[in-house]
């Protein structure tokens, strides 16, 4: 039965097939470029070792489809470019086998090894069109971009969306839960639990949107050995084939390239991965601090101790992203050093490029931990209240000194710091109590006169520090609607 050439949607179907292959039992090497402990299964079709060759196959296949649609491959051969044949190639070709051919037959050239493997599986009439015109890094540069874009769309972005939904839900639930705000780990001003999470979520949402943009701008290239399309022009008289193959793959063609694609678009993507990793690390650090015995305001899932059986949970889900960020932060340095290449291309950067994906794997591991953390996160409202009552009585001192300053007291800050606040701490009382006592004593008549005329709303806040929230509640509810 005659088969039709791959049509619209061939790539999506091929990716679904790769994902299916990753779920099957196989002797293939599925190890991702990280330590064995961190091997997220959803990333296997993208970064599992033996799957790299399959991504190269996808790009070579897109080129064959382009040659067919351009009329370079005769129409009678189009039937061989079927979805079934592509699936067969994807199943049969693996990086380990490519490595073996490279060592045995091609003097260390990986793409020449790949060409041998592809040709073995194609009818003789089609073999002469395999890799006809492109250079090896047309395939490799484009495959890197394709991997990142599709992994982002199909795995990373859905995960980021799940975290976003969980995060915003916790913000909304705790938008009005009064909590000590802290600076330098000292009691500062009142906030709410939702506001604290909102300050981090707004950074998360911003960087997710920037990562989306970076993913949409990933560039491939198909301009030949030095970027001039020399072979395509000389053999086919065509300068439009790069646009055609990029259309097949859903990628942007770099405006100008050498033998390699300009590195900035891939670097941009990993840069925003690093920024997101940093936000998750900041969140993890805050959670582990608030979950500490001294604070006790948060509970999240974690591990027990091997010896201290009294422990409920070490905050491992919060701590994991902190460590993952350290790795990502180191990896982005390597990626940034790959921005330079000698003239058209050198081989110095190809080795490090093979490890770029480790950043995304470690970041995804952070996402898995943060998702677990949010699913288990609970605020300890009674502990939040206990800490606030213990340390929060003097928090509106800012409001008092600004009110006194506005009324004309030139040393307002010093007076509140050294007299009012100091006395309130000694007596463990709110600031209004001390101000009333100062007025009764008559020791500071200028201050007493201002206190006598002070707005009742200000006095109410001094007596009830939890009211000094500004727009924290509004900000929390608003951020809870900031879908990214």
**Compute the gyration radius: what is it?**
31 Å
The main β sheet shows up as:
2 strands, antiparallel
The CATH architecture of the largest domain can be named as Up-down Bundle
Instruction: Tally the helices.
Output: 22
> Would you identify the CATH H-level superfamily of the largest domain?
Fumarase/aspartase (Central domain)
Average pLDDT level: 94
Secondary-structure content class: mainly alpha
- The counted number of beta strands is 6
Q: How are the strands ordered across the major sheet?
A: 1-2
Features:
Fumarase C, Chain A, domain 2, 484 residues, Fumarase C, Chain B, domain 1, mainly alpha, two-stranded antiparallel ribbon
How do you describe this structure in short?
It is built from 22 helices and 6 strands.
Topology:
Layout: H1 10-23, H2 44-47, H3 52-69, H4 83-92, H5 95-105, H6 110-120, H7 124-127, H8 136-173, E1 178-183, E2 186-192, H9 193-216, E3 219-220, H10 230-236, H11 241-249, E4 252-253, H12 264-290, E5 298-299, H13 316-337, H14 350-353, H15 357-376, E6 378-379, H16 381-391, H17 397-406, H18 412-427, H19 431-441, H20 445-453, H21 456-463, H22 472-479
Parallel strand pairs: 3-4
Antiparallel strand pairs: 1-2, 5-6
Helix pairs in contact: 1-4, 3-4, 3-8, 3-11, 5-6, 8-9, 8-15, 9-12, 9-22, 12-13, 12-15, 13-15, 17-18, 18-19, 19-20
Describe this structure in words.
The chain has helices at 10-23, 44-47, 52-69, 83-92, 95-105, 110-120, 124-127, 136-173, 193-216, 230-236, 241-249, 264-290, 316-337, 350-353, 357-376, 381-391, 397-406, 412-427, 431-441, 445-453, 456-463, 472-479, and strands at 178-183, 186-192, 219-220, 252-253, 298-299, 378-379. It is mostly helical and 484 residues long. It folds into three domains: 10-132, Fumarase C, Chain B, domain 1 (Orthogonal Bundle), CATH 1.10.275; 151-219 and 261-386, Up-down Bundle (Fumarase C, Chain A, domain 2), CATH 1.20.200.10; 396-467, no CATH class. Strand 1 and strand 2 form a beta hairpin. Helix 3 (52-69) runs antiparallel to helix 4 (83-92), helix 8 packs parallel to helix 15 and helix 12 runs parallel beside helix 15 (357-376). The model has no long low-confidence stretch (mean pLDDT 94).
């Amino acid at each position: 039965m005659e088969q039709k050439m791959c049509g619209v949607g061939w790539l999506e179907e091929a990716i679904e097939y790769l994902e299916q292959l990753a779920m099957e039992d196989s002797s293939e090497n599925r190890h991702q470029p990280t330590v064995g402990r961190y091997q997220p299964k959803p990333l296997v079709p993208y970064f599992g070792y033996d799957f790299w060759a399959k991504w190269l196959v996808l790009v070579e296949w897109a080129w064959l489809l382009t040659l067919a649609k351009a009329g370079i491959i005769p129409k009678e051969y189009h039937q061989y470019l079927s979805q079934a044949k592509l699936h067969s190639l994807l199943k049969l070709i693996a990086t380990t086998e490519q490595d073996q051919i490279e060592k045995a037959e091609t003097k260390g050239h990986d793409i020449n090894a790949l060409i041998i493997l592809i040709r073995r599986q194609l009818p003789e009439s089609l073999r002469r069109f395999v890799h006809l015109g492109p250079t090896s890094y047309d395939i490799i540069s484009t495959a890197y971009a394709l991997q990142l874009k599709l992994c982002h769309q199909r795995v990373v972005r859905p995960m980021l969306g799940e975290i976003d939904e969980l995060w915003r839900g916790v913000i909304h639930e705790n938008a009005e839960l009064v909590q000590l705000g802290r600076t330098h780990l000292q009691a500062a001003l009142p906030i709410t639990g939702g506001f604290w999470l909102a300050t981090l979520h707004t950074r998360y949402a911003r960087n997710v949107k920037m990562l989306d943009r970076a993913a949409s701008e990933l560039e491939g290239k198909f301009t030949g050995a030095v970027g001039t399309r020399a072979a395509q022009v000389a053999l086919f008289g065509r300068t439009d084939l790069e646009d055609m193959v990029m259309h097949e793959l859903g990628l942007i063609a770099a405006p100008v390239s050498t033998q390699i694609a300009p590195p900035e678009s891939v670097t941009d993507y990993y840069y925003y991965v690093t920024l997101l990793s940093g936000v998750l690390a900041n969140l993890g650090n805050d959670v582990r601090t608030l979950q500490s015995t001294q604070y006790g305001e948060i509970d999240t899932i974690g591990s027990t101790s091997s010896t201290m059986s009294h422990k409920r949970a070490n905050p491992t889900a919060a701590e994991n992203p902190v460590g993952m960020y350290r790795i990502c932060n180191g990896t982005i340095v390597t990626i940034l050093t790959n921005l330079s290449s000698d003239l058209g291309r050198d081989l110095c950067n190809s080795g490090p490029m093979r490890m770029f994906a480790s950043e995304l794997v470690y970041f995804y591991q952070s996402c898995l931990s943060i998702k677990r953390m949010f699913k288990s996160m609970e605020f300890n409202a009674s502990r939040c209240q206990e800490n606030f009552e213990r340390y929060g009585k003097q928090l509106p001192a800012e409001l008092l000194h600004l009110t006194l300053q506005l009324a004309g007291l030139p040393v307002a800050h010093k007076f509140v710091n050294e007299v009012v606040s100091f006395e309130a701490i000694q007596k463990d009382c709110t600031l209004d109590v001390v101000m009333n006592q100062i007025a009764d004593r008559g020791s500071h008549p200028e201050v007493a006169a201002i206190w006598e005329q002070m707005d009742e709303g200000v006095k109410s806040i001094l007596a009830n520090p939890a009211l000094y929230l500004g727009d924290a509640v509004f900000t929390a509810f608003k951020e809870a609607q900031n879908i990214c």
